[in-house]
Amino acid sequence: MDPTQLALIALAIGALIGGSLAGLVLVALRARDRARVQASVALPDGTRAVLQGMDDVAVVVDTSLLIVAASAPAELFGMQEDVALPGDELRALVRTVRRAEAAETATLRLHRGVEPRLVSARASGITPRLTLVVIRDITERERVEEMRRDFVANTSHELKTPVGAVSLLAEAIESAADDPDQVRHFASRLTAEAARLGQLTSRIMNLSRLQSADDLTELRDVSIDEVVAAAIESQSIAADSAGITVVRGGARHAYVRGDVQVLTEAIGNLVANAIAYSPAGAQVGVGVKSDDRVVEIAVTDRGIGIPEGEQHRVFERFYRADQARSRRTGGTGLGLSIVKHAVQRHGGEVELWSRPGRGSTFTVRLPAVAGPPELVTKKKKRKKKPPRESARPEGEKNP
Predict the structure, then answer these.
(1) 318-329 tens-digit pLDDT
(2) pTM
């Protein structure tokens, strides 16, 4: 074999060996890249355990926005493993985090079932291909904050009127110092505005106390007979002035556990409301119905009634069904709101039935208690259970 042939053979062998080595290197590089990709897609150790221990909604999504792990509360928002991340705004947040390679927080809306909720969502990368999204429902927090802002704004507005009136009347009295009749006239109006201002301030403080987290302190077994009698008596002057007759009927000797002053004010507010919205010469009924579980107190009037579209708003602070009438009667728009919160603080509920032109019935339901031992003994001695009494006074028909 001549030298030329030997050289060609050596060259071919070298090329073959070089190609094999290059192929081995390429395979090794590809294997390394696959390992890196798999490592970036795989969940870090302990991630699922951490998610399952979270009270907030939390999910981990991959580059295709598919959920690969989720906390238990995430199911409330329809977020489960192997399901695409819901919500256009939420998906846009994840894409932004991926591009920016930095954590981002946004306030957005998601649906919990069919209910829209306001949430705070924070997205952050945990591997090159996985993103952690933590979602906190802030709907109630924002609602409370909005109520606080509305309360401050409404209170400022309501206080402005009587404060301005007091200031003007004081100036009028000073200007009319030489006219005793005018002084007496302005002084009587000043007294009325001062009383209105005092009532408004007192009701704002009472409502604030009822809405606070503090528990009621003056708790005892309260006689509903005592509460109803005191509530009617507190409105007797207003009833006489308006020509309204207040009738009490229904069961006797019912008891609840609560604060007698708070309950008396709540029922008194209902009676005052019924008087204010009833025509002269009308009748307001206060009836009680009770059994071993619940005591019901119904206050019924034959007044102007409330349109169905406005009934859900009557328990809002400062809401008035009839602005002109409320101004004439000195209403603050806080009475029914106080009723709602007072009843809720006693573990009860208040319900409204109303028809325009036919009147309204507010029914308070409270958990019943047995009452004093002597009353319990007397009940046990009864041989025959009396028929269930209506919560409405005689002559009052059920709506």
Answers:
(1) 665 554 444 444
(2) 0.52
